[in-house]
Design brief:
Number of strands of chain B: 10
Structural class of chain A: alpha/beta
Strand content of chain B: 15-25%
Oligomer: heterodimer
Largest sheet of chain A: 5 strands, parallel
Number of helices of chain A: 10
Structural class of chain B: alpha+beta
Order of helices and strands of chain A: HHHHEHEHEHHEHEH
CATH topology of the largest domain in chain A: Rossmann fold
CATH architecture of chain B: 3-Layer(aba) Sandwich
Number of helices of chain B: 8
Strand order of the largest sheet of chain B: 1-2-6-10-7
CATH superfamily of the largest domain in chain A: Cobalamin-binding domain
CATH architecture of the largest domain in chain A: 3-Layer(aba) Sandwich
Number of domains of chain B: 1
CATH class of the largest domain in chain A: Alpha Beta
Shape of chain A: globular
Radius of gyration of chain B: 18 Å
CATH class of chain B: Alpha Beta
Distance between the termini of chain B: 43 Å
Order of helices and strands of chain B: EHHHEEEEHEHHEHEEEH
Strand order of the largest sheet of chain A: 2-1-3-4-5
Radius of gyration of chain A: 18 Å
Shape of chain B: elongated
Helix content of chain B: 25-40%
Largest interface: A-B, 30 and 32 residues
Number of strands of chain A: 5
């Protein structure tokens, strides 16, 4: 791998945001994902290579480490911060279409539920996996999911719930989505859910954790 | 013996602020460096909340009419609290229940909403954790006070149990709140039984001559997907 891409990979994996960041201690005083991404672009490395050879594999490794309990939420969020610093440089290329995303992922916490930590984690990791994420926030009504899907008809929808009392609200959302667009895929996730529950309410996928959600999303577009 | 009205406690953040170490432990970041971003966010947040006063809680004590262990029901004022067999078992020697609510107020939600809007998810996550620990610490203080009051009357208290844990359905909040009645803390329930402000806790504590505190937390809960169990497992 190109040494600059290796550096970007390392910065994202360990959460080194930029030169000013003191974390992680072993990289103190060194450039971070921010500077290395700029350097990579200046040296002629394509934005697609930065995305596909450094950022996506790095976030994939972070997700894997989280799944294996080798790192915890704070470390994952630091990696996401570093990734975002790199992504800032790539934004113009997403807009111009020079860098292609894998697809669009509409994400929200179901109506009645105000929890957002799990949803945010999934959103960040999915974005790091090369998807465009449209985060609708918390307490998202059925109409909002449907309306956003109308604007992005090829999108996949993700619905989150943290409570036993709100996970039941997912079913009418899925029903409304499928009525409007039968081919649209829907994935659900959240602490009280299970694969069985997801199947019973008509969801196409169940995301046990962020990494499982990414694997399912990638399999849909493979 | 006991006051049979809602007994209110008020705290300032300074009174009950969780320690930096306890927050780091909760965030599974114990032992991190002095200039670690998580530690910096914690210190900044603790500093910003120093003058915060809006933390309150309390309880109302009610006699238990009957306890149906087989059905997992505790009857209070002729209303069924369907807490499940597990909690019922722990409270079978209780003569009274302290029905409690406690809140750290809405400041934590306000701060995290601001951070989330800017995409500062790490900051939001840390502040959310501080909010959770703050309300638990406030409730620890209230529970300690109840224990002292009970000892004066030669009574003991149980652990505290909340809807959503230990197989007590979250929907049990409705009956719990209806038994508590109007609380001066002004915590209200949404249709989905979420408490507002979000950083609030509610539940019951058993009181009786022979009641004992049992093993607590994940040891007695069957929810294998609960995030707190995952944290303990990781340790």
């Amino acid at each position: 791998m190109n040494p600059i891409l290796e550096k970007i990979f390392e910065c994202v994996e360990f959460g080194k945001i930029n030169l000013a960041a003191n974390f992680p201690p072993q990289m103190k005083g060194q450039p971070g994902a921010d500077e290395y991404t700029k350097e990579a672009l200046d040296s002629g490395i394509t934005p697609s290579d930065i995305m596909n050879e450094a950022l996506i594999p790095a976030m994939n490794k972070v997700g894997q480490k989280f799944t294996e309990n080798k790192i915890f939420v704070p470390q994952m969020l630091l990696s996401a911060k570093a990734m975002n610093a790199a992504m800032e440089h790539l934004k113009p290329f997403f807009k111009s279409g020079e860098v292609k995303r894998k697809g669009t992922f509409i994400l929200g916490t179901v109506f009645g539920d105000l929890h957002d930590i799990g949803k945010n984690l999934v959103g960040m990791m999915v974005e790091g996996a090369g998807w465009e994420v449209i985060d609708l926030g918390i307490d998202v009504k059925t109409e909002k999911f449907v309306e956003t899907l109308q604007q992005h008809p090829n999108a996949i929808v993700g619905i989150s719930a943290l409570l036993t009392t709100t996970m039941v609200n997912m079913e009418p959302v899925i029903k409304a989505i499928k009525e409007m667009s039968p081919a649209t895929k829907v994935i659900v996730g959240g602490a009280p859910l299970s694969q069985e529950f997801a199947s019973s309410i008509g969801a196409d996928g169940y995301g046990k954790d962020p990494q499982a959600s990414i694997q399912w999303l990638d399999s849909v577009v493979a | 013996m006991y006051p049979y009205h809602f007994l209110t406690y008020k705290f300032s953040f300074q009174d009950i602020a969780p320690s930096v170490d306890s927050i780091l432990e909760f965030l599974q970041s114990s032992g991190c460096e002095e200039d670690h971003p998580v530690r910096i966010i914690i210190k900044k947040t603790l500093c910003e909340l120093q003058s915060y006063q809006d933390i309150s809680g309390g309880y109302i004590i009610k006699p238990i009419d009957s306890l149906m262990l087989k059905d997992g029901i505790i009857k209070v004022e002729n209303k069924d609290l369907i807490v499940g067999k597990q909690i019922c078992g722990y409270l079978k020697k209780a003569s009274h229940l302290a029905l409690f609510v406690c809140t750290a107020g809405d400041i934590f939600t306000k701060i995290t909403t601001g951070y989330n809007a800017n995409g500062d998810y790490l900051e939001a996550f840390v502040v959310d954790a501080i909010g959770s620990l703050t309300v638990e610490k406030a409730m620890d203080n209230i529970q300690e006070d109840l224990a002292i009051l009970s000892e004066i009357n030669n009574l003991r208290i149980s652990n505290r149990y909340s809807p959503g844990y230990c197989n007590w359905e979250l929907s049990g909040q409705r009956r719990l709140f209806s038994l508590i009645g109007e609380n001066p803390i002004n915590i209200c329930l949404t249709d989905s039984c979420l408490m507002n402000p979000i950083k609030s806790v509610s539940g019951i504590i058993g009181i009786g001559e022979d009641i004992k505190k049992k093993a607590y937390g994940c040891v007695i809960c069957n929810n294998s997907e609960c995030i707190y169990r995952k944290i303990l497992t990781k340790r």
